[in-house]
User: Fold this.
Amino acid sequence: MRAPLHDLARHGLVDDPDAAARRVEVVEQLADAVSNAEYVQESGPENLETKLATFAQLDAAAAPSTILASSTSAIVASLFTEKLTGRARCLVAHPVNPPHVVPVVELCGAPWTAPEIIQRARKNPR
Assistant:
């Protein structure tokens, strides 16, 4: 993590690469990674079965107020969030590439995504 952050810093895209690297923590269980998160950005494979499984785990492990977002570019949020207890907090947050150069993120909710979730995601870009 440290080397790419220093590369970004050389281009003026990261102010303090060492501080950023210190904020990265490796954990063995998904629940440990998301239990205290305000926002979770999933960026896994473009595969519906994988997203269904991942979002089921995220929904079970994250606090009810945690926003659960996917960077998918091809799968609408309704397909992988419909059966989740916390589906109102789920959306697609698809970044324009490369995200560290183009700071634009498309936000797309499912029919059941709560409007306040979209607003929170818009106010707190990650």
Observations:
- The longest strand covers residues 90-95.
- The chain has a mean pLDDT of 94.
- The first helix runs from residue 2 to 10.
- The beta strands are 39-42, 67-70, 90-95, 105-109.
